[in-house]
Amino acid sequence: xxxxxxxxxxxxxxxxxxxxxxxxxxxxxxxxxxxxxxxxxxxxxxxxxxxxxxxxxxxxxxxxxxxxxxxxxxxxxxxxxxxxxxxxxxxxxxxxxxxxxxxxxxxxxxxxxxxxxxxxxxxxxxxxxxxxxxxxxxxxxxxxxxxxxxxxxxxxxxxxxxxxxxxxxxxxxxxxxxxxxxxxxxxxxxxxxxxxxxxxxxxxxxxxxxxxxxxxxxxxxxxxxxxxxxxxxxxxxxxxxxxxxxxxxxxxxxxxxxxxxxxxxxxxxxxxxxxxxxxxxxxxxxxxxxxxxxxxxxxxxxxxxxxxxxxxxxxxxxxxxxxxxxxxxxxxxxxxxxxxxxxxxxxxxxxxxxxxxx
Length: 358
Fold this sequence. Notes:
single chain; 8-stranded parallel β-barrel; 11 strands
């Protein structure tokens, strides 16, 4: 048995049957009201059938005004429950664990999409963002918690809080711009407060079998490396999370800040104390060897993104063949369709430079 094929136990909920999760991937296949489409269900169900230990949805917005892109999955209304419940049932039948990623785009919500000015922890003239009031920050926190409760009601094994990639929770962490004076900004303790309160609230509002993860990313979007490391260790040793998902852009690249440049990004995070929390990494893992290298470097599991777009059965193939590598890009539209991507998803991937032929 390789490390990739070893089961992974969490404090809450069932065991993941291998060390590969499907990364939460924007696919633009949901209906305008945030309900699931047949194309999106098929895309996710095929990944469960393809051997992934856990299948995570794309980012699902927790408020109507938190939508970040067209065709985004919603979890801000009970109207979304029938589709989510059907998806959870289908994923359970594949043998994979399931999770909904909880998201709000904040200032990255396009005004023409949400029909109003975007809202974030601080005002931003370039995007027309207005700063949330103190009461609205508390509502935002509570809406993340309510969305996790919906995920549990729908039958998912868990949820992941999206605190990465410059979306609203990462905007609160912005050391340069979040200078709020109401207890939700300024100091590091105040900037991380909303993430910690969401974690506490979800754990209190859901049952003992509900799995809870958090996605963070270091660097970019004014995230200081020292603070990213401190927050990662705090949430891992806090005893409330089942897993931390570190989106590292490229797992083995050198950090951008000179004082941390002596070893690759992944090693900074695998060196942290983690208590009972499992640590996963994402970032340019396109073959079985790289996935195994991440585990050898100390990660507990890996999250596969582009490789899973190219191969619905990336996990199964990586477990069967240590030399398996994703096909090279560009690929044809027909290839992506055969791998379970609907037209909207294929069109989106065609916007990625060099990914789709033509």
